[in-house]
Amino acid sequence: MNHGQQSGEAKHEDDAALTEFLASLMDYTPTIPDDLVEHYLAKSGFQCPDVRLIRLVAVATQKFVADVASDALQHCRARPAPVVKDKKQQKDKRLVLTMEDLSKALREVNNSSSLSSCF
Amino acid sequence: MKRRRKARVNSEAPDDQSAAEFSFSLTRVAVSQICLSVGYTSTDTSSTLNTLTLITTKFLQSIAELAASFSNSANRTEANLFDIVNGLQDTALSTSDCFPGGSTLHNTESHCLIKSAVLRNLSDFVASAFEIPFAKPLPRLETSGSHGGDSTRMARSPEMRSFPAWLPPFPDSSLYLEPYTKERSDHLWENSDSVIGRGTFVETSGVRSSGRLPLRRASVRFKMGRDCSNGGGSCKSDTRLERRRDDNDGEYGREFEAQKKIGEEYIYCADIDAGEWNM
């Protein structure tokens, strides 16, 4: 009986968390605009009038890009920096996204996920 | 020469290609914004950014295709949250970096989508990450585009809800509705086609009457069958009166002339009698 009550409470809490998350999507503005996401979704045969779900897809895509970019950034930082004698150049150390870092980051994603079927 | 040929090919590109280029360039702006938020300031070549942008679009479309296939397999045309989460789960299954976990989605005891690690990670991302809105507001195309996404965004009336959204929108109702349906109530019989006939002034000029007269219109003159001497009144009654008057005048004149004749004869006789002769 207690186990049933606990599971019911946990389910209620999960439902509340899900509702809160979906409500927070209404106020959240993803970097990828809704119209753009909607365009790609319609192109793939996806049909949904709910803006929250479109934003959910936008957030997932944004997170994917951010994770790949941060992974590439880790590779960029892990690479030994070239020796620079000039102090100005040392101060102006700008992070540049290179194809080498990007390919390393994508290779990790590609190896560990089913994304290889997409690309 | 080759460049000129290439330029011609690009100028003759169809609308689909330009729309794809436009959407791709918009995605590239969004991807560059995300990279900027991570810490990057630039890319070594433009192809690097294009590659990441292309992968982003492929990722988005793969989620959409998976969600659409899940909804179609459940005999639905519209996808719901379950389909999207399943699509996300399949896309990023066992990805250690993007979506860790996620094995509890099909757990029969949980019965809740938030148990999915994918959704939980996304919830944490929304709660923690800063909002980076798109650089510029997107212009909305008023004309119907070649793809169904924009063209199906028109507001549908409750009667049209039964039609799927991916179908092209209906044309304007004024193009196919009967033009006389609204005017039937105040349409007078004497103005109907059976009396006037088609091709009258109002119909040929393209203006429906509906009780309103055009500003410039032809002058109309009325002519009766015969002219009336008197200004007012009905012509027939006047003529009758005149006839009566004429008749009366004629008799009166004849009487007057007879009296006059009698009088003259009387005077003539009297003058003869008196010995005077006046001619």
TrEMBL record, chain A:
<keyword id="KW-0539">Nucleus</keyword>
<dbReference type="Pfam" id="PF03540">
    <property type="entry name" value="TAF10"/>
</dbReference>
<protein>
    <recommendedName>
        <fullName>Transcription initiation factor TFIID subunit 10</fullName>
    </recommendedName>
</protein>
<comment type="similarity">
    <text>Belongs to the TAF10 family.</text>
</comment>
<keyword id="KW-0805">Transcription regulation</keyword>
<keyword id="KW-0804">Transcription</keyword>
<dbReference type="InterPro" id="IPR003923">
    <property type="entry name" value="TAF10"/>
</dbReference>
Automatic annotation (TrEMBL), chain B:
<dbReference type="GO" id="GO:0046982">
    <property type="term" value="F:protein heterodimerization activity"/>
</dbReference>
<keyword id="KW-0539">Nucleus</keyword>
<dbReference type="GO" id="GO:0005669">
    <property type="term" value="C:transcription factor TFIID complex"/>
</dbReference>
<keyword id="KW-0805">Transcription regulation</keyword>
<dbReference type="InterPro" id="IPR009072">
    <property type="entry name" value="Histone-fold"/>
</dbReference>
<dbReference type="InterPro" id="IPR006565">
    <property type="entry name" value="BTP"/>
</dbReference>
<dbReference type="Pfam" id="PF07524">
    <property type="entry name" value="Bromo_TP"/>
</dbReference>
<feature type="compositionally biased region" description="Basic and acidic residues">
    <location>
        <begin position="237"/>
        <end position="250"/>
    </location>
</feature>
<feature type="region of interest" description="Disordered">
    <location>
        <begin position="229"/>
        <end position="250"/>
    </location>
</feature>
<feature type="domain" description="Bromodomain associated">
    <location>
        <begin position="20"/>
        <end position="97"/>
    </location>
</feature>
<protein>
    <recommendedName>
        <fullName>Bromodomain associated domain-containing protein</fullName>
    </recommendedName>
</protein>
<dbReference type="InterPro" id="IPR037818">
    <property type="entry name" value="TAF8"/>
</dbReference>
<keyword id="KW-0804">Transcription</keyword>
